[in-house]
Amino acid sequence: MTKADNMLSILWMLRSGKRKTAKQLAEALDIHVRTVYRCIDSLCASGVPIVADSGPNGGYTILSRFADSPLVFDAEEQKGLIHASIFAKEAGYPHSDALDRATDKLKRYANDEQLDALERHGLGLSVIEPPLDGAYQSHLQTLEEAAGQGRTLELNYDKGRGEASPARLFDPYGIVYWKGSWYAVGHCGYREEIRSFRVDRIRGLRQTDRRFERPASFSAKDYLLGRLLRDSKDRAEWETVRIHSREQVLNELSRHWLFGHALVERQPETATFQLERSTLTTYVPYFLMPYGTSLRIESALLVRRMREASARLLAHYDDMQHSNDTGEGVLDDEQIRDVR
């Protein structure tokens, strides 16, 4: 048997409440006494409250409060764990490998009927999320571990459209998943204030030797929602945008992270949003382009930015069309073979 199997077997034997010596455990499992000692050490390290009594009547016992705790999940609990792991993994949970090991243990010790039910329930649920690259997953894991250990990181961030910001020290207080995106919330050494950062825009993370203490009762989730949903006192930073379109289109817009938190009024074919002006000059025009002529927008600023973005896009493809028509920049068959 594997070490994990031996550990589980020892745990079940000690849960009986009877004191067992290392020799008794070794004989029952047909393993060496030294293997029993190693398994006991591993169980203690994982948090199992095993008590070792020396002397003629000594041996190993387990605290009653732990022995009485349920270690076996019923069918509904197993299904819930399988479904939760699917949601977490598809959302980019940073310790998906640990989830895999946990669900593998469920399946390993299930009988044929239970295993069949777990497999069917697992196949019966799907989550559609954009695939995350390795760097994204690595950043999430680094941020979560640094938050748990109180370790300061050095962070490199892309402000948008490829504009890099100065490297900064960052104390991650927590990571938050909201509407399809992960955010890191913590103290920014560059701004000397609490800030939030989109994890998909982080270009680099490096551990430092510095430590930090998270403020008592601080909630990364409450901070992020407060920042995204805040009613700014400086109205010059905000723009009211009214969009007319089909109800289905507006429903889709209102569910997106960029617009959902900014919705202030909704009618079947009209939606009014309160958006930061900075987003109107960066993300919003390019996000709305795929909707083409299905939108009618009431906002002079956004309409102007849409025209500018569309003009740049048109100029780009005009140049490409010219290159294709004249043959400039187009590889012939021999050049393609050379590249290969």
Describe the structure.
- The chain has 340 residues and is α+β, with helices and mostly antiparallel strands.
- It has helices spanning 3-14, 22-29, 33-45, 64-67, 75-90, 96-108, 112-123, 134-149, 220-229, 247-255, 257-260, 277-280, 284-288, 300-326, 333-339, and strands at 50-53, 59-62, 151-157, 168-178, 181-188, 193-198, 202-211, 238-244, 263-267, 270-276, 296-298.
- The protein has four domains: 3-67, Arc Repressor Mutant, subunit A; 75-123; 134-229, SH3 type barrels (Roll); 235-321, Alpha-Beta Plaits.
- A five-stranded antiparallel beta sheet has the order 6-5-4-3-7.
- The longest helix is centred in the last third of the chain and has 27 residues, at 300-326.
- It is elongated, with a radius of gyration of 29 Å.
- Mean pLDDT is 83; it is low at 335-340.
- It comes from Cohnella ginsengisoli.
- This is WYL domain-containing protein.
- Residues 139-206 form the WYL domain.
- It holds the Pfam family WYL.
